[in-house]
Amino acid sequence: MPIQKNTCEFESKAKKLREIAISCFKLGTIGFGGIAGMVATIENEMVVKRKWIDHEHFMDVLSTSYIIPGPNSVEVVMHCGKERGGRIGLIIAGICYIIPAMIICLIFGYFYKRYSTLPDVQQIIYGIRPATTAQVLGTVFRLYDKTLKNNLLLIVLCLLVFILSLFGINEIVLILGAGITNYLIKRRQNFSIFT
C-alpha cells in the first residue's frame, strides 16, 4: 500500500511540474510588453485560469518584485511556480519562462541589427510604440479596478509616487517610501481605534 501511495504522490507532483512547465513556456512565448504588459497575462494564467494563487497574494508578489533586483516578470512567474510545485517548481518555472523569451530576443535582435535601417522596418517599429503604450494603460486600468478602487489612500500614494518620479526620484526609494507610508498610516488608524 505505501508503494501505491508514493506512486500517486509522484504522479501528482509530476503532473504539477508538467503544468508549470507548459504554462510558463506559454507565458515566455507570448509575453510581450515588459512587466507592465505581462502583469495582465501572468495574472490571467496563474490567478484566474489556474488558481495557483489568489489576486491579493499575486499583488503582494508583484509589489515585492519591484524592490528585488532582476526582471520582475521572471520573479513573479517563478514565485507562482514555487507556490504550485515547491522549489523544483520555482526552477522549472524560471527555465521554461526564460528560454522561449531568450530565443525570441535573439531572433528579433538578429533581424533588428540586420534590417532596422530600412524605411519600411522603421515604420513598423514606430507603429509598435502606441500599441505598447495602449497595453500598459490597459494594465493600469485593470489593476485599478481590482486594487485601488474605493481605496483613497492607495490612490493618493500612487499619484504621489507618479509625481515624484517625474522629478527623477529613484523608483526603489519611491516604492519603499510608499510602502512605509501606507504601513504608518494604517498602524496609526488601527492604534486610534483601540484607544
Task: Kindly list the characteristics that best describe this protein.
mainly alpha; 7 helices; 195 residues; 0% strand
Structure commentary:
The chain is mostly helical and 195 residues long. It has 7 helices and no strands. α2 (34-49) crosses α5 (119-148), α3 (55-65) crosses α4 and α6 (152-166) runs antiparallel to α7 (171-194). It starts with a helix and ends with a helix.
Annotation, overall tally of beta strands: 0
Largest sheet: none
- Indicate the radius of gyration in whole angstroms: 21 Å
Number of helices: 7
**What level of helicity do the residues show?**
over 70%
Kindly report how far apart the N and C termini lie: 59 Å
Shape assignment: flat
Report the structural category. Answer: mainly alpha
Give a quick precis of the structure:
This protein is an all-alpha fold. Helix content is 87%, strand content 0%.
Q: Secondary-structure map with pairings?
A:
Elements: H1 2-30, H2 34-49, H3 55-65, H4 72-115, H5 119-148, H6 152-166, H7 171-194
